[in-house]
Design goal:
With 66 residues, this protein is an all-alpha fold. It is 82% helix and 0% strand. It is built from two helices and no strands. It is rod-shaped. The mean pLDDT is 87.
Length: 66
């Protein structure tokens, strides 16, 4: 009886550990992709500012000038 309960407990713990590893891995992948996207966007903005200084003086999307 005790061995069965122990085996079930280990099975549940292993499943929980696997789910947590998948969640953490997904979070790392998401943060890596978001950082890559932001770096690419900043690089494009810098290149655009070098080509056309008029665009660089405009406010970013979503931010109104006062």
């Amino acid at each position: 009886m005790e061995a069965t309960v122990q085996a079930q407990a280990f099975s549940i713990l292993a499943t929980v550990a696997l789910v947590l590893m998948v969640v953490v891995t997904g979070g790392v992948v998401y943060l890596t992709a978001a950082d890559w996207r932001d770096r690419r966007r900043r690089k494009n903005d810098q290149q655009t500012a070098k080509r056309d200084p008029q665009i660089a003086r405009r406010s970013p999307k979503g931010i109104a000038k006062k």
